[in-house]
Amino acid sequence: xxxxxxxxxxxxxxxxxxxxxxxxxxxxxxxxxxxxxxxxxxxxxxxxxxxxxxxxxxxxxxxxxxxxxxxxxxxxxxxxxxxxxxxxxxxxxxxxxxxxxxxxxxxxxxxxxxxxxxxxxxxxxxxxxxxxxxxxxxxxxxxxxxxxxxxxxxxxxxxxxxxxxxxxxxxxxxxxxxxxxxxxxxxxxxxxxxxxxxxxxxxxxxxxxxxxxxxxxxxxxxxxxxxxx
Length: 229
Known about the structure:
Elements: H1 2-33, H2 40-47, H3 53-72, H4 83-93, H5 96-107, H6 123-139, H7 152-159, E1 167-169, H8 172-179, E2 184-186
Parallel strand pairs: 1-2
Helix pairs in contact: 1-3, 2-4, 3-4, 3-6, 3-7
């Protein structure tokens, strides 16, 4: 009787693990293939008239990375590192029914908005930024602890010349030491405990974590953004 019970429990555990993995992969594919509601790029361009349509598509691609970071972290809190990606996410939220339906399919729960931030005194924001840096890097096959280039989401604002955007560099020493520009935020800071006394969120484990990697799915008319629980 006891061996049969043990086998039954083990079988149930295996099924639960397989189901969890299947569900995450299905949600990941949904995020990659999702198409934004019609007219959303036009609304973004009203906020940011300097953007061309191809720029909006790039923003959507970055936002897709953000959603994937949230999913692959096990739906832990993630903070938004890009002002222009935050703009597109905010516009998406205004399509209330479409946004709610997306969240349910992509995450199984609603994602509430959190404003774009940089590392600072708020430890929860810092944890969320470290977490999205980690998963955004992993998605693009970048070493989060020793990045030689920026993941798209962290490069968007500078790449598109966003006036109030957040400018990142993968290497603090080359950007700050060379130019003395204190407005540059650096990838190496995410693994540096001197910022707030810890590195919470940087590579933390999750039963739901992990990604198949790659940037499958096109961005023509599609894309999205995310926040935290």
